[in-house]
Design goal:
One of its GO terms (cellular component) is plasma membrane. By secondary structure, the chain is of the alpha+beta class. It is built from seven helices and five strands; from the N terminus they run H-H-H-E-E-H-H-E-H-E-H-E. A hairpin with a 3-residue loop joins strand 1 and strand 2.
Length: 260
């Protein structure tokens, strides 16, 4: 008996694909591409935020009518049509304006020392007092050292004081404001044409200013005067002593950059 004819199964060997050793480059290039896109997006976002920041700074400058507040915080001023950094720097180079102000402060400090020495050496305090303010260096003369009560003509002994003061003031080139004040006692002098405390205070300030120009040689272009009358007292006009304190003339040496 014959055996059944069996089909012979043919076995074929499946070949495994060969391993590509450079396939990692594809993954690496994808990663690099993604990182590049990421940084481009981040850069574009930062540019937008910078524009918003610049807009805010410009708006604040407009609101505060100038650059002084923002410059005090460390932000440089921005002029129209010019591009300037908007990020505050830890330390900025000293510009010409700052250097000029610094030099001016040094001159005023020296002036203060000279005036203070003169007042002390001649025992003029409290009739002449000296203070340093934000406006500048201020000399205050009480009425009795310069004028008789209700008069606008200088006393003879006041001239020697103003002569020395004027000589010291010539050591600086700053503007000078001469300012007159009175108490609140109603005043009128028909013979002199003075109708009020306001006019009296202005005449006294003008008299002192003219003396500094004519006798001491101060440049007229540096000088101006103003009369405030009774409207800016330093103490209440409730006693004779307080009224005497309010009747005064100030000579103010104005700091660089300080306007009236």
């Amino acid at each position: 008996m014959s055996r059944p004819n069996r089909r012979r199964r043919r076995y074929t060997r499946t070949e495994e694909p060969s391993h590509n050793s450079e396939r990692w480059l594809v993954t690496y290039s994808d990663l690099i591409t993604l990182l590049l896109v990421f940084f481009i997006v981040m850069y574009s976002m930062s540019s937008i935020e910078n524009q918003k920041f610049n807009a805010i700074v410009s708006s604040l400058r407009t609101s505060f009518h100038g650059d002084s507040l923002l410059e005090g915080l460390g932000y440089p001023s921005v002029d129209k049509g010019q591009t300037k950094p908007t990020v505050p720097l830890d330390k900025e180079p000293e510009n010409v304006s700052d250097a000029k102000k610094k030099k001016d402060n040094q001159h005023l400090d020296k002036l203060y020392v000279q005036l203070d020495q003169y007042i002390k050496e001649n025992n003029l305090d409290p009739d002449v007092s000296l203070t340093e303010t934000q406006r500048g260096v201020q000399l205050t003369f009480r009425e009795k050292i310069l004028f008789d009560l209700g008069k606008a003509d200088l006393k003879s002994n006041a001239q020697s004081v103003l002569n020395r003061i004027g000589t010291i003031l010539k050591s600086v080139a700053n503007e000078i404001s001469v300012e007159g004040y009175t108490d609140n006692t109603p005043f009128r002098d028909k013979s002199k044409g003075i109708r009020s405390n306001w006019e009296l205070s202005g005449l006294r300030a003008q008299t002192v200013m003219n003396y500094l120009i004519d006798k001491d040689g101060l440049e007229a272009k540096r000088m101006h005067f103003v009369g405030y009358g009774e409207y800016r007292p330093i103490v209440k006009n409730d006693t004779d002593a307080h009224k005497a304190m309010n009747r005064r003339v100030n000579i103010v040496v104005i700091r660089e950059g300080k306007s009236e």
